[in-house]
Protein 1
Amino acid sequence: MKLLLTGHGYKYAVEQIMLMLFPEERPEYVEGTAELTNTAAAVSLSRGNTYDTATTRLYYGGAVYTGIARRRRCEGSPLEVDRVLQRLIKTAFFRAAVRATGKKPVWGALTGIRPGKIATALLEEGRTEKAVLKTLSTEYYLAPDRAALCLDTARAGLQAAQTLGERDIALYIGIPFCPTRCHYCSFVSHSVEKSMALIPPFLEALHREIDADALSVRKLDLNVVSVYIGGGTPTTLSAEQLESLLKHLAQAFNLSRLREFTVEAGRPDTITPEKLSALKTGGVGRVSVNPQSLCDDVLRAIGRRHTAQEAVSAMHLAREIGFDCVNMDLIAGLPGDTVETFRRSLDTVLSLRPENVTVHTLSLKKGARITLEQTPLPSGDEVGAMLDYAAEKLRAGGYGPYYLYRQKFTSGGFENVGWSLPGFDSLYNILIMEELRTVIALGGGGVTKLVAPKIGRIERIFNAKYPHEYIKGIDGLIAKKSGIETFYHQFIDR
Ligand code: SF4
């Protein structure tokens, strides 16, 4: 979409709202109105003595549609002014787009990956729940069910926050290996077939990183309350490798304050009784069995090498081994799926009664095979119908939404929601989404997020994505992670 900005340089805000409302478009900046032809937008901002005014003129379908947003001139701090003006710009763009397309997206004018945060901030300001819902619908144009999602997840986040001590942290361990690459995935996960030989040196490097981070955690007197091993697919490792990793972790870190220990046993084709037993013996309490769909045609279309029945059997196996908290993931919008087959997948998942169900919306990633091959996908309306069905059935089944996030390039601009039975909210998911406490990431592809909650400061340390980069760069990474101690000395223990 051709974009002309006048009176401001808020490119990021404009791109965010444009991508949300017109996901198939990419920004192209132009210098003058003469270049604005069909599917283009002139986005201007004026700051008067009394009012700040944003205007969007959207050239669409042979006509021009105007959206205006105005409020009293903001005189706060530079940060506050930026925030207010960017919102004004997004609102004006949204109003023009609704006039042009006749469609009102369920997330209204709200961009950003953590929509629950606005509700959290409003509740923390002392607003009532009713007032929060009203603000979300009248100022951000959220559909009532999405406003309710925000409120529910904000409530869960605030409840979790009350249970956390100042020095509580979580650990994330990334195992960047998978048996094969799913067609919708762009995650840097190495297929075992090609890189089996990298697993032992990867684990050796990981053990070194564990030792180094554990030393910092002990020195800083931090409490590990949650461990999450994700990937990739951690259960790509053998039972012996899993056992040794868990032993090493328990020896290095003091896990006596642990409240939750999750391992993603994501791909049912990697799950065996031996591996699940190794996890159980190693102290893991929560596993994630992620079929994504329980329709064999869809599983084939996304490149999975297992059937729906095998996913169901993996879930039964997890129960037999004694896991009393299991998550199952589904994705709405996969190739070959229909509203009807998605409904059947969800019904089957519900019949298995996992404690957590995470319903994702397919996000079209750049390097994914379905993006490159332009595989036909369910429409935005169909995805919307899938999610509506899921929300209705999950709520009726006693599940509540406890965390929520959005990604770019999702079918229909929809969301990902974690649902849980009462008492089974995953602390890690809330911690990471609400940015409540530090999460130290180890292994491949992880990002350590250092959080000083009282002053709202967040810093990140990035781990290498590819296994061979990670192995080669382990000394440098360990040196870089001295930043954990520096951060705590500078911003928390001042
Ligand atoms: S299991 Fe997950 S990380 Fe691995 S290829 Fe599939 S989507 Fe990607």
Protein 2
Amino acid sequence: MSTTTTLFDPTEVGAWRLHNRVVMAPLTRNRAPDAIPTDLMATYYEQRASAGLIITEATAISPTAQGYADVPGLYGTEQIDGWKKVTHAVHRAGGKIVTQLWHVGRISHVELQPDHQKPVAPSAIRAEAQTVLIKEGKPEFQPTSEPRALRSEEIPGIVQDYRHAAQNAIAAGFDGVEIHAANGYLIDQFLKTGANQRKDDYGGPIENRARLLLEVVRAITEAIGADRVGIRLSPVTPANGIDDADPQPLFEYVVKQLAPLHLAYLHIIEGSTGGPRELPERPFDYGALKTAYQMAGGKGAWMVNNGYDLPLANEALAEGADLVAFGRSFISNPDLVARLRAGGPFNKAHRVTFYGGGAEGYTDYPTLDQAG
Ligand SMILES: Cc1cc2nc3c(=O)[nH]c(=O)nc-3n(C[C@H](O)[C@H](O)[C@H](O)COP(=O)(O)O)c2cc1C
């Protein structure tokens, strides 16, 4: 009898029983004016509820955590009420949904910050990166603004914002949260030498650069329970102009520290987010990362992402991954699970409607049934 695990086998992850191992990756879509989730967003997520788990688009934990036009937040009552529509719709359709908690740090623009203040960051180093403003209804890419370095005494307030947003997530009906520690945003900026030149307890050696991440994880797990919390890491992506001098020991330290905290899952972006899975100039051993986690007693599910299709996903499962997150293919295939099961065909995603706009390129991609 074959015991091969497939993408379509159910599994227990933390507090959840998932129908399958296909995860919808977090996807920013810039369709939340005033940072409040809309009815259209509820429809979009409900259409994708056959995923084993949905991770929402990145969601700002505070007004200063904001770095792009029309992204949602989770720090005010109207936002909680907006998200309730989304979580109820997904649950009605039999799905599970967590929200991705986000602080962009230096990946922002003064136009998006309260009182047009400078964005905050570990150090006052501007990112070689762009952000998206919406001008006359159209996305407009702009260079990020120069940030200011957070003072040491401001950091507990940031941790508190994460804790509060996690509590709001539960109030909004989410099954849990994913901590966004990837892609060159605030937590990743603290982790990596290219953005962190601090001289206090949050800069310098690895233990110091990982301090904010671990404080955030502890605060959130204390608030809502570790079995409802996952974390996303991207050891080598250059996304948003981020870089580290020596990522292998950094991330092995991080996962060893996470091991005893009993998170539901670790979500690892392999290679360059949305780009090549192998970067010759930034080699990284993901097998060694997983071994480091498991040898330290880590039992959370291992979720992989970046450029996966069905054959590659099956390979990853055979090699011991527990969950596979799909990004762009979920944008254009609301019934991605059924399409993977059927071996295709797959709708193509239209880039021009990724960021901003309305229903077009958002809720109008057909299912297999609708395509006839
Ligand atoms: C339109 C778009 C928006 C994205 N937004 C987010 C986000 O909010 N948070 C995040 O961690 N990654 C984000 N990503 C990265 C995806 O989650 C994913 O890592 C990437 O698309 C690679 O996976 P794929 O090859 O399956 O698409 C985004 C990617 C795209 C294309």
